[in-house]
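Case study: V-type proton ATPase subunit G.
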Amino acid sequence: MWNFRYHVLQDLLPGDAILLGNLEIPGRMDSNRGQNGIQLLLAAEQEAQHIVNAARNAKMARLKQAKEEAEKDIAEFRAHMEAEFQRKVAEADLNLPIKQSSGDSGANVKRLEQETEAKIHHLEIEAARISHDVVHMLLKHVTTVKN
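Here is what the predicted structure looks like once written out:
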């Protein structure tokens, strides 16, 4: 960074003025005033750095605040959805028939297994009955060429 400033100051011609924000440094300076000009430039650079740092800190504060608000909103939404879920579970429990004793539970499992097996057997019979027609229809559509 020093090299950049040095080259900028070195390339100035006598009589050139430097405009830095609202601060104008006259071009004609004796050696004493030249040192003051460099000091002014350094001070202006420090002030600019402070402004940039303040803006960066303000941005980080806004991002942190937005993150906190988003987390709060998420927590509220999660609590709302959990309460809704619990309400629906409780409502579903009320609509179920009264649970039978555990001895009847084994009978229910066996009955459900038998019903499932009967439905599977029925589907297998139906599939075997219509499979020939389905294969014939598919072959017809696959081999038919339309213009």
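For the exam, be able to explain this: The longest helix spans residues 31-95.
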